[in-house]
Structure formats: structure tokens, C-alpha cells
Write a structure and sequence with these properties.
Length: 524
């Protein structure tokens, strides 16, 4: 590795092939590239399912003529599918006028249209119209609907109150870990008495306490230089959180040894009091597919943070869910994830008027995949991540507008790969929200068109990050700010102005872990 004389904030490595070979030899301990191969629905080990249909909205009285209100028919169909134990609700070709939120409170339910160009859901009212305003701060027009809630709302009943949105449940401890474990380990040790509470296939919430010495935050921040972060001021929001939440599943229990479904994202240290807790109320196996969501409103101009709540799909406390071949038009926010694990969004198109987020990923959302997406509408931000989220992947995207947005709160260990963008969005995040990004964020095979490298090709933002095969601009010399200590923090640059031989880093990681099974998964 050779440190460039021209810049203070990154190092140049020879090429992406060398980096890949180093990763392949030790996937869990590479300094710059995280293992994100477990991201996606069912850890990307299974294709998105084709759930049998159990009912059509026509069976419950939907007209589909774009004139009569079909809300009650949709609610009846959702309830009947739930009473049947799950299944797909078919929405035939047509235009369906809706005046209320469609809640998916039960696992195993899919809403399936006849195709993006054939089935259209027309939402006539916003969340403000339906639920009332949800202001924040001292400005009466500022709205929390800028980042939460959706007109298609997937989450457990317990999460659907205004004082309980977004985060995971915080349950009592099932089992405390009794021995240290390295990052990337597949097994942990628990007390013999606690081991009896654990069973294979159990979903659990692993938690790491956030001590006052900031050692957990420093580990997530990555580079040694990040220890100079002013956690008291610039990172006060992060220091308020009592712990870091990382859902996973148990593969096996043998005596006091618990084998996890995936490698540990962080190591286990005694001072962090790592524990296994019940995952709490959550929703699984819900899918929205093959349809268009269109918002009916007359607002011509979007005003930042004054969202009325014309939001598309909101996943909250959800696991193993998906969106497949969906178009969203004229929304204020396209798809929002808050406390979401191991889900996939595939084939999304976002279009129409200017809006806030195309994709937002909030609050301890881990191991999700966004693939084959296209953002056509002008967005204030773009594709967002925040809230100590990790292990996420954005791939095969075209962004006519937007940027690689972070709202601070130090997301880490994630990959953006094989994406083309015009990079005209901007990041966000309030004062005191901590560093812009944490460790090991990777931008691999990214093409910038007619735009600067700010936020996308900006080494100062990315401690122990990797910028590989980014083309169309020079590395930005701009200092990140936003709670990030300036100067060299271990970011590396490779394949300058060159397309990497491995064009899709996530696909390469999947193939490395699963072999030919990975190719079959990605083909569906």
C-alpha cells in the first residue's frame, strides 16, 4: 500500500484484484471490506418466494375503476388472508382508489398485483390527513413523517402508536455471553442454565451495551484517529442510546455453545455486556409486489421537512420481508426501513415530483439488500442510511437524481456497488448525531455522471473505507465535517478511473460463500 503524496486523506492500493484476494483469504477480518454476503431475504440463501394466492380483492368487493373507494375491500382481503394463516392477496389489473393506510400486522401475507403497468394503487390521503400531524421541534410545520410511517405499513400492532414507532423492542435478557468472541465468529458461549432457554431457529436480539468510555462507539467508528471524536457534543445522540441492537437467528445449541446463523458483526468484550434477548414483536414474510403506488395530491413543490406523509411503503420491526417489481410515483418518501433485518427490495422505480428520500434505512436496520433500483425523480437526499445500521447492500442502481446519503448516526460495514448516479442530492442529520459514517463503508464500481465526487468519492468521510473503481470525477478533497474527525483515517482508493474486473462486489461475496447457489439466487 502506498500513501499518495497529493492527498492527506486516503491511500492508494495497487488494484481491486489484490484487495479481493486479500478479502477472500480472510473475509471476516479485512481492514476495509466487510462481509455483506448474508444480506437480503433469508440471508440470500433462498430466492424470493412465490406465495400461493388465497384471495382476490375482487372477492371482497373492489371495483378497480379509479373512482369508487376500494379501501374497505382491501382491508377485508388482508384480514381474510390473515385468518387463513397467510397467503397472497391478488390485485388484478385496474386502478384502485384508497383513502386509508393499508396495515400489514400479520406475518406471511403478500399483496401481489398483475404488474407495474397494470395494477395501480391510488392513495388520496396523506398520513397527516388520516392520523393527524406529527410535528417535531419548535417549528409547527416540521413533520416526523419526513422519515417514518407509510400508506402501506408493515409492522406489528405494538409498533403502531405514535410513541412507539421505529425501534426494536427492548426485552429482558435471555442469556448473557460468558466469554469473549472475535468479530466474525460463528459461536458464542452462554451459561449452562441460560442455554436451556435457547433453541435452533429462534430469532434473537443480540445487544451490546454502550459504555461511558465510548469504547463501543470507537470500535464502530473504526480508525484510531476517530477516537478524537467529540462524543459529548458532536456525538451526544449516540451516547444516549443504551445499547446496539443486532437481530440474528440461532442455528444450533450444544451445551453452552450457541452457533449463530451468521458471523458476529462486532466482537464480544466483557465491558460491553453482550447478551441474547427475545427479538420481541415483529413481522415476517410479508411481500409487496408487481404493482404501482401513486399518490394523488396537488402539491407542486416539496418543502423540506414539511412532509404530509404521502409515503409509500414503511417496514418497521420486520424480518425476511420483500418488495419486488414495484413503482412509486409522487411520494414524499419511497420506501422506509426502521428496525428491519434481512429483507430485499428488488426492481423498484421511484418517479414523479421532488421529494425527501427515495430509500431510507433507519435505526438498527441490518443486512438488507436494495437491488435493480431506478430513481428518476429529484430527491433532496437519495439513498439513505443511518442509526448504527450495518451489513446493508445497495447494488445495480441508476440514480438520475440523489446522492449516497448518510444522516450521520454512524452506519458501518456496508456496500454500494455497480451504481450510476448524477449525484445532485445532499446528506442530512442533526447536530449531535455523531460521525457521518463508521468503519468499512465500500463504494465499488460507481459511475458519476456530470457531477462532483462529494459524499460519494470523498475519502475524508470514510474511516477504513474503500473507494474502488469510482469514475467520472476526481476524489473530493472536501473535508467531511458532520462529526467526523478530519485527516487520513485509513480510507483506500483503487482502480482509479477504471471499472473493476469484479463489477458487483456483493455478487462476488455471495459466490465466494455459496458457490453456484449464489448465481441461482441472484437470477430470480
Amino acid at each position: 500500500m502506498e500513501h499518495s503524496n497529493s492527498w492527506r486523506d486516503y491511500a492508494v492500493v495497487s488494484d481491486s484484484a489484490t484487495m479481493w484476494n486479500e478479502y477472500a483469504a480472510a473475509p471476516q477480518t479485512h481492514t476495509h471490506i466487510p462481509d455483506c454476503s448474508f444480506a437480503g431475504y433469508r440471508y440470500s440463501e433462498q430466492a424470493l418466494p412465490d406465495i400461493p394466492e388465497v384471495i382476490s380483492v375482487k372477492d371482497t368487493g373492489a371495483a378497480g375503476d379509479g373512482q369508487r373507494d376500494d379501501t374497505l375491500a382491501f382491508k377485508r382481503a388482508i384480514e381474510r388472508a390473515a385468518l387463513s394463516g397467510g397467503g397472497a392477496i391478488y390485485v388484478p389489473e385496474g386502478e384502485y382508489l384508497l383513502s386509508d393506510i393499508l396495515y400489514f400486522r400479520h406475518s406471511g401475507i403478500v399483496m401481489r398485483g398483475a404488474g407495474k403497468d397494470k395494477t395501480k394503487l391510488l392513495f388520496a390521503k396523506s398520513l397527516t390527513d388520516i392520523l393527524g400531524p406529527l410535528p417535531f421541534g419548535v417549528h409547527p410545520l416540521r413533520s416526523q413523517y419526513a422519515w417514518c410511517g407509510g400508506l402501506i405499513w408493515v409492522g406489528p400492532q405494538a409498533s403502531m402508536t405514535k410513541d412507539n414507532w421505529e425501534g426494536w423492542d427492548d426485552k429482558e435478557t435471555l442469556a448473557s455471553l460468558t466469554a469473549p468472541a472475535k468479530q466474525g465468529a460463528m459461536t458464542v458461549q452462554v451459561d449452562a442454565e441460560d442455554a436451556g432457554k435457547l433453541t435452533p431457529s429462534m430469532a434473537v436480539q443480540m445487544t451490546w451495551d454502550n459504555p461511558s468510555d465510548h469504547s463501543l462507539l470507537e470500535a464502530i467508528a473504526g480508525h484510531e484517529r476517530m477516537k478524537a471524536t467529540d462524543w459529548v457534543s458532536d456525538g451526544q445522540m449516540l451516547t444516549r442510546w443504551p445499547r446496539w441492537y443486532w437481530p440474528t437467528e440461532i442455528a444450533k445449541v450444544e451445551g453452552t455453545t450457541v452457533t449463530l446463523k451468521q458471523p458476529l458483526r462486532l466482537e464480544v468484550r466483557e465491558k460491553w455486556n453482550v447478551a441474547l434477548r427475545p427479538l420481541g414483536s415483529h413481522i415476517r414474510e410479508v411481500g409487496i409486489e408487481h404493482l404501482t403506488i401513486r399518490m394523488l395530491h396537488n402539491d407542486s413543490d416539496y418543502v423540506h421537512l414539511q412532509d404530509k406523509g404521502f409515503n409509500g411503503i414503511y417496514f418497521n420491526r420486520a424480518m425476511h420481508c420483500w418488495v419486488r417489481e414495484v413503482a412509486i410515483h409522487n411520494a414524499e418518501n419511497g420506501i422506509i426501513h426502521a428496525a428491519v433485518k434481512s429483507s430485499t427490495v428488488s426492481g423498484l422505480t421511484v418517479s414523479g415530483r421532488e421529494h425527501h428520500h427515495a430509500l431510507a434505512l433507519r435505526l438498527h436496520s441490518h443486512d438488507n439488500v436494495f437491488t435493480d433500483f431506478r430513481i428518476e425523480s429529484k430527491t433532496v437526499h437519495g439513498i439513505n442510511t443511518e442509526g448504527l445500521s450495518s451489513g446493508n447492500v445497495w447494488r445495480k442502481g441508476v440514480m438520475v437524481h440523489g446522492t449516497f446519503d448518510s444522516h450521520r448516526l454512524m452506519s458501518f460495514d456496508s456496500i454500494r456497488t455497480d451504481i450510476t448516479l448524477h449525484n445532485d442530492g445532499k446528506p442530512g442529520g442533526g447536530d449531535g448525531f455523531g460521525p457521518f459514517l463508521g468503519r468499512r463503508m465500500v463504494h465499488w464500481n460507481v459511475c458519476l455522471i456530470g457531477s462532483s465526487g462529494d459524499w460519494v468519492y470523498q475519502p475524508d468521510c470514510m474511516p477504513n473505507g474503500a473507494l474502488v473503481g469510482v469514475r467520472g470525477a476526481e476524489p473530493s478533497a472536501k473535508l467531511c465535517g458532520r462529526g467526523t474527525v478530519p485527516g487520513f483515517k485509513g480510507c483506500v482508493v483503487a482502480d482509479l478511473a477504471t471499472t473493476p474486473e469484479l463489477e458487483d462486489l456483493f455478487e462476488a461475496q455471495l459466490r465466494h460463500r455459496l458457490g453456484m447457489r449464489a448465481i441461482r439466487r441472484l437470477a430470480r
